[in-house]
């Protein structure tokens, strides 16, 4: 006998201590469409409070009893949460699961956020160092500075896929692996202070890319194996604010460093900047060993019951979930899925539109203020962007919606890019900085959440997909580094015009994926897609 066929007796066993009439049990069974055991258990939580109306009805209470109406309404309310939205994604109703997610948030998010904050602090320190005569001190000419920006991403791209394949392997502890890599990039970043010429800076930037590469795709993979589709967008948004806040405060940190330590102990301010930031990063790397999780079934700071629940709830939330077959098989699965390439193109266009990041102090500097004022003015647009990022992540997760969030946010960014192209008015250009920074950054969590939700049939496929998409996406930083030559200021028409096109392409690819997933969902609903379950793709 199947679980669905035996559902009445199964419910009767669970609630045997409660005086439930047979009619109410039948109502419950008719309301529950999902046959999953956990869904039924969560639904039964409504009866754990033993409605007084039932006590009156079964134990001789007098007077008319209309409690069945309230009970049916309660059952329907819980059923809506268990049944989920158009994609089958469900809200949390089990107190044990809610407690688990809170524990994950408290343990995972603070350390990941701190690591990502320092990841961008170290990577983008060079943009602020440029304002303290780094180019002149190292004798950089022509496009040599731009080449030092882009070379980081060559090393970064080479390590992304193999690193995430290692992350998905049960032979490696993600907590130890990511922390060691962070310690290495801290050392390399601090070594930037020792460079004397173009070749030295070029080599340091390349190896900084190699050592930083494991963190971001690894962080996305960790979030994807612990959080469901409705949860992950907000968590990626919170993580991404580490990038935004880092960019916002980096200018303030640099301004303070240059003002107080320039020429101290015969070192320039930009050299002190790399030394101080590298030392802080190295200290945080040590904390990561103890605070980061591993895999759901092997994380040390979870109880055995919590480990199993953490694993099971992700399995329930996965479309076309399959058995794991190893890291190499996961890579082959990812490369054979054409949706990987559309998502890679979308994220590439999105990050291409974000290419202003490495040149943001230069873009703001085109307003004509002093270097100190310029560094201070870089902060507010990023603070505003962080707020927008959180809001978009919350609404995208709550409504399990992707396409319109990308369309509206990138639409705002496109308008900001256009304003930067057409006017030299300082006020308008500064407002444009708010628009394109907030609009472009806000969609990052939406796209990456879409990646893990769409391509997560196995953990290994998910890890390989995230790695590959990050490789393709971050390749944009190689060529966008050449879109902001000094002689193109103050409008930077080449960069801003290109960003406008990148933003439009991001929107177009989001709609293409939406139509694709809608078609796939229709096949799943008709039962014409082999191996498909009851969960549909979100768009």
What would the keywords be for this entry?
mainly alpha, 2 domains, transmembrane transporter activity, 539 residues, single chain
Provide a brief overview of the structure:
This protein is mostly helical. Helix content is 72%, strand content 0%.
Describe this structure in words.
This protein is mainly α and 539 residues long. The protein folds into 2 domains: 1-58, no CATH class; 111-310 and 325-526, Growth Hormone, Chain: A. It is built from 26 helices and no strands. It has helices at 7-14, 22-31, 37-44, 52-58, 67-83, 95-123, 125-129, 134-138, 144-168, 174-190, 198-212, 215-226, 229-261, 269-291, 304-316, 327-336, 338-353, 360-365, 371-377, 379-399, 403-422, 426-442, 444-454, 459-474, 476-480, 493-526. The longest helix is centred in the C-terminal third of the chain and has 34 residues, at 493-526. The relative contact order is 0.12. Residues 1-20, 23-72 and 74-82 have low confidence and may be disordered. It is a multi-pass membrane protein.
């Amino acid at each position: 006998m199947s679980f669905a066929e035996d559902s009445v007796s199964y419910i009767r066993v669970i609630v045997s201590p409660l005086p439930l009439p047979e009619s109410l049990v039948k109502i419950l069974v008719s309301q529950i469409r999902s046959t999953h055991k956990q869904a039924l258990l969560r639904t039964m939580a409504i009866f754990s409070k033993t409605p007084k109306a039932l006590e009156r009805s079964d134990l001789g209470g007098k007077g008319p009893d209309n409690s069945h109406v309230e009970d049916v309404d309660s059952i329907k309310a819980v059923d809506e949460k268990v049944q989920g939205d158009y994609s089958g994604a469900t809200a949390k109703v089990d107190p044990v699961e809610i407690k688990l997610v809170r524990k994950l948030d408290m343990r995972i998010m603070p350390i990941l956020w701190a690591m990502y904050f320092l990841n961008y602090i170290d990577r983008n320190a060079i943009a602020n160092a440029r304002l303290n005569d780094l180019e002149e001190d190292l004798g950089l000419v022509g496009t040599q500075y731009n080449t030092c920006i882009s070379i980081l991403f060559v090393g970064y791209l080479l390590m992304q896929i193999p690193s995430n394949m290692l992350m998905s392997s049960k032979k490696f502890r993600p907590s130890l692996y990511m922390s060691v890599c962070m310690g290495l990039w801290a050392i390399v970043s601090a070594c930037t202070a020792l460079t004397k010429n173009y070749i030295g800076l070029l080599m340091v930037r390349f190896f900084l890319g190699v050592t930083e590469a494991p963190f971001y795709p690894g962080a996305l993979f960790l979030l994807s194996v612990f959080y469901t589709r409705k949860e992950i967008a907000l968590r990626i948004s919170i993580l991404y604010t580490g990038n935004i806040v880092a960019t916002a405060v980096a200018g303030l940190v640099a301004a303070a460093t240059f003002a107080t330590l320039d020429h101290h102990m015969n070192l320039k301010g930009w050299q002190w900047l790399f030394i101080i930031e590298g030392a802080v990063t190295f200290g945080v790397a040590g904390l990561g060993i103890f605070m980061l999780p591993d895999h759901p079934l092997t994380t040390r700071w979870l109880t055995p019951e919590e480990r199993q629940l953490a694993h099971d709830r992700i399995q329930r939330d996965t479309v076309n979930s399959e058995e794991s077959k190893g890291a190499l098989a996961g890579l082959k699965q990812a490369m054979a899925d054409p949706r990987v390439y559309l998502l890679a193109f979308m994220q590439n266009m999105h990050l291409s539109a974000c290419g202003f990041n490495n040149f943001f102090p230069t873009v703001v500097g085109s307003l004509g203020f002093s270097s100190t004022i310029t560094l201070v003015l870089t902060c507010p647009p990023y603070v505003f962007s962080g707020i927008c990022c959180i809001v978009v992540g919350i609404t995208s997760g709550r409504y399990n919606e992707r396409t319109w969030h990308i369309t509206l946010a990138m639409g705002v960014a496109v308008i900001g890019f256009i304003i930067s192209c057409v006017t030299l008015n300082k006020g308008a250009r500064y407002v444009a900085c708010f628009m394109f920074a907030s609009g472009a950054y806000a969609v990052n969590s939406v796209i990456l959440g879409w990646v893990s939700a769409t391509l997560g049939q196995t953990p290994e496929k998910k890890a390989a997909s995230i790695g590959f998409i990050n490789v393709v996406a971050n390749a944009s930083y190689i060529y966008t580094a050449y879109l902001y030559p000094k002689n193109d200021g103050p409008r930077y028409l080449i960069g801003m015009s290109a960003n406008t096109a990148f933003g439009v392409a991001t929107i177009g690819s989001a709609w293409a994926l939406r139509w694709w997933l809608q078609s796939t969902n229709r096949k799943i609903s008709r039962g014409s897609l082999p191996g498909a379950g009851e969960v549909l793709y979100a768009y």
